């Protein structure tokens, strides 16, 4: 009598790596990794302290980066981990990992996906730590390296549609996977925001070019009349010395004292806690090359919880908010103009309510992750099917 033997077919293995982002980054973990885990074995290597399985994703963290030398150490770790892991698909998120991805592909034969989060050459032009005279030459070199290396990858994923314009001569397949929000329930242990009449939030990394001092100046100029307020900043402040400058500014403006709280990096569920309980979301980034055409993720996050928005008056941002009727815009370099818009929204509850409802509707009908997940999984399937057909033909 023949013996029945059960044949176990393992799902293809996907290795997601980042030397810059925290493991529970909104795009990398909450959106892409969790979605991919529905059909693949997913390993995620990124910065943090957690080790274990989370929502079907095996997380193996890298040490925090206290110096640029430590960052180089993490890049080397990812190279060795990638070679040891031998995945079917390597999905990486940082331009600095391009050499790592090329080596792993060469030595293991895996498929490689480059997830482009930003306009890398344009971002270099805004890096405060790079000497001004070096920024243009370095941006040109970065552009050349990024485009030429991408020819050897199997798929390019763009978080913004305009990124593909700069890759138009690259023959590698491309797809747009936008940073639309996931549907998450706020943390069960949501913190109380306090007794202020108006709670304002800013979600994301904060720097001078992201409006750190401009927003505080605008709040100092705003006439709140009889209303109390509190401003919550949900994200790391960069560089670290900016915190001291902000504290000094607050110390010289009595109105702001005790009314501004920096929470640093917090999980996405906690971000939603604060945003869903606040009255106004701010996104007043400065007109830097990397921001002008990129639609900030925080705009969609605010929409997802019905939070009215006050944002920079960049053409693409203004168009989005006008089409969805979810917020107002102002010149992000003009604190007085920002203050005037703040005063209108603070003292007009009906306007805030209407804008918030429109934003929530836009999220439900168009700007949500469910549609992007379908695109992501389909792109993976097509890439792996093509690979299987080629292997079959070669055999």
Describe the structure.
This protein is α/β, with parallel strands linked by helices. The chain contains 14 helices and 14 strands. Helix 2 (68-85) packs parallel to helix 3 and helix 6 (212-221) crosses helix 12 (335-346). The longest helix is centred in the last third of the chain and has 26 residues, at 369-394. It is globular and about 65 Å long. Strand 3 (51-54) and strand 4 (57-62) form a beta hairpin. It folds into 2 domains: 13-180 and 368-394, Rossmann fold; 198-365, 3-Layer(aba) Sandwich (Rossmann fold). The two termini are 34 Å apart.
Jot down its keywords.
14 helices; eight-stranded mixed β-sheet; six-stranded parallel β-sheet; Rossmann fold; disordered N terminus; about 45% helix; alpha/beta; about 400 residues
Nutshell version of this structure?
The protein has 395 residues and is an alpha/beta fold. It has helices spanning 26-36, 68-85, 98-108, 120-124, 132-150, 212-221, 242-251, 268-277, 289-292, 297-304, 315-324, 335-346, 349-365, 369-394, and strands at residues 13-22, 41-47, 51-54, 57-62, 89-92, 111-116, 155-158, 174-176, 198-203, 229-234, 260-262, 280-283, 309-312, 327-330.
Averaging pLDDT over every residue, what do you get? Answer: 92
**Largest sheet, spatial ordering of strands:** 3-4-2-1-5-6-7-8
Approximate shape:
globular
Number of DSSP E strands: 14
Structural class: alpha/beta
CATH architectural name of the largest domain: 3-Layer(aba) Sandwich
Please give the largest β-sheet.
8 strands, mixed
Q: Report the C-alpha radius of gyration, rounded.
A: 23 Å
Might you state the CATH topology name of the largest domain? Rossmann fold
Percentage of β-strand residues: 15-25%
Q: Count the DSSP helices.
A: 14
Taking pLDDT < 50 over at least 5 consecutive residues as the criterion, the unreliable ranges are 1-8
């Amino acid at each position: 009598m023949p013996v029945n033997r059960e044949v176990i077919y393992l799902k293809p293995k996907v290795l997601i790596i980042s030397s810059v982002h925290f493991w529970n980054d909104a795009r990398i973990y909450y959106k892409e990794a969790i979605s991919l885990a529905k059909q693949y074995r997913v390993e995620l290597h990124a910065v943090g302290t957690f080790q274990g399985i989370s929502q079907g994703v095996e997380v193996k963290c890298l040490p925090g980066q206290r110096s640029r030398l430590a960052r180089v150490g993490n890049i080397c770790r990812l190279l060795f981990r990638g070679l040891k892991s031998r995945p079917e698909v390597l999905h990486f998120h940082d331009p600095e990992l391009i050499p790592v991805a090329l080596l792993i592909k060469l030595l293991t034969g895996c498929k490689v996906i480059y997830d482009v989060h930003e306009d890398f050459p344009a971002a270099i032009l805004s890096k405060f730590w790079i000497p001004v005279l070096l920024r243009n030459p370095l941006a040109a070199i970065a552009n050349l390296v990024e485009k030429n290396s991408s020819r050897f990858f199997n798929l390019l994923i763009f978080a913004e549609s305009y990124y593909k314009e700069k890759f138009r001569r690259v023959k590698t397949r491309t797809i747009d996977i936008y940073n639309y929000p996931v549907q998450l329930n706020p943390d069960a242990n949501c913190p109380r925001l306090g007794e202020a009449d108006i709670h304002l939030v800013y979600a994301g990394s904060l720097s001078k070019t992201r409006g750190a001092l401009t927003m505080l100046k605008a709040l100092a100029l705003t006439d709140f009349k009889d209303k109390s307020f509190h401003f919550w900043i949900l994200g790391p402040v960069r560089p670290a010395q900016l915190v001291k400058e902000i504290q000094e500014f607050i110390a010289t403006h009595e109105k702001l004292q005790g009314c501004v709280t920096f929470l640093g990096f917090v999980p996405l569920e906690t971000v939603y806690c604060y945003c869903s309980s606040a009255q106004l979301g701010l996104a007043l980034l400065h007109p830097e090359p990397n921001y002008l055409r990129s639609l900030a993720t925080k705009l969609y996050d605010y929409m997802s919880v019905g939070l009215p928005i006050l944002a920079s008056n960049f053409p693409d941002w203004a168009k989005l908010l006008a089409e969805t009727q979810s917020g107002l815009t102002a010149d992000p370099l003009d604190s007085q103009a920002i203050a005037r818009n703040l005063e209108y929204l603070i003292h007009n509850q009906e306007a805030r309510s209407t804008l918030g409802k429109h934003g929530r509707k836009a999220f439900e009908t168009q700007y949500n992750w469910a549609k992007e997940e379908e695109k992501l999984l389909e792109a993976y399937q097509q890439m792996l099917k093509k690979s299987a057909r080629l292997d079959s033909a070669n055999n």
